[in-house]
TrEMBL record:
Protein name stated in the entry: Cell division ATP-binding protein FtsE
Annotated function: Part of the ABC transporter FtsEX involved in cellular division.
The species this protein was found in: Blautia wexlerae
Subunit structure: Homodimer. Forms a membrane-associated complex with FtsX.
Record key words, sorted: ATP-binding, Cell cycle, Cell division, Cell membrane, Membrane, Nucleotide-binding
Similarity annotation: Belongs to the ABC transporter superfamily.
Amino acid sequence: MIDLIDVSKSYGPGLPAVNHANLHIDKGEFVFVVGNSGSGKTTLIKLLMKELDSTSGQIIVSGERLEGMKHRRVAKYRRKLGVVFQDFRLLKDRNVYENVAFAQRVVNRPTRVIRKRVPEVLQEVGLAVKYKSFPDELSGGEQQRVALARALVNRPDILLADEPTGNLDPKTSEEIMKLLEQINDRGTTVVVVTHNKDIVNSMRKRVVTMHEGSIISDEKEGEYHEA
């Protein structure tokens, strides 16, 4: 499903942000990527999103090599991905329904499909009754649920979450992680970048630890240990 083969990413002189990383993630896995600030976690996610190009090595996702991928192909590749960020990135001038529907409109889904699918995914994340609300009328946890719904509406094979609980209180963080676990249980591959030690250690998933750009450990039912 996801393979990184001797992947490095440099922004300039000095230590690479990602340094000779090798990683294999099977379809349907749930993987935490952890490490201190500056360890390379977010760069790794951006490489998988094809937001950045690797300096060297190979990245293969669902059988597609990312290096050398033509620009017109990138948009189609990204349709296989759902992405959730710490800062939600919602459209402030559109309500919940329109924020989620937007993700379908950009890939030219027919209106009848949008009208059916958006309420389904809002139900999945527990926001069916809030479909007319605007982002500034929602709590942080509710905004992250909208972001999750938007990421899931096109039924992606892979969900990438970069610090999805970074702005949330512990109870809300736990609720979001339970949602991610349910999404994974339905067959979606989930990769979560986080510095939330309590969540990682409570969930007992696979844990990949990065330090100064290198992957220094990979544990099947791991814990978050400071590098």
